[in-house]
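Researcher: For the annotation table, I need structure tokens for 5-formyltetrahydrofolate cyclo-ligase. Please keep the output clean. Sequence:
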Amino acid sequence: MQKKELRSKYKALRSQLSENDVETMSMAIANQLLAMPIWDKTYFHIFLPITEQKEVDTELILHLLSGKDKEILISKADFETRKMTHFLLTDNTKIKKNEYNIPEPVDGIEVPSNKIEVVFIPLLAYDKQGHRVGYGKGFYDRFLGECTPETIKIGLSFFEAEESIKDTHDDDIRMDYCITPKNSYNFK
């Protein structure tokens, strides 16, 4: 399937999920992460979910990271430049939803992309080669391009992998892993 078709398919599938489905599957994803070889790292970037889009609820992952004394980073998107700025999540961080209902930090301590060791990536669909389909604005493609080659890229999805995405590009940055409620895909 093409990215455009996959976007439509997975937006429709997510829209059918109940609040309870989202909560239960998000918990299963957080539990799957405990077995991942990432816990020796320090700087973790995580997305705050757009609840209206029924994205994976990352609250439990935030609790895991906090309980393991990790440095947690969240981003603010600039829709003109299509770039993201990353801020350290602290007790003083004020979160506000932007015009697209994305929860973002108002301000804070900025951290450069090349310092981030693990990135949890929101997505709509992905394939068995580690290619992902997002909302199509390219924010994460730009962001992942700024990270070091050693940065571990982990997609989070309620659904299993597609066989392949037809319209990928050579410069697409593939994920290293994708975690679902039932499986951990390793693309390395």
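Researcher: And a one-line annotation?
Model: DSSP finds four helices and eleven strands in the chain.
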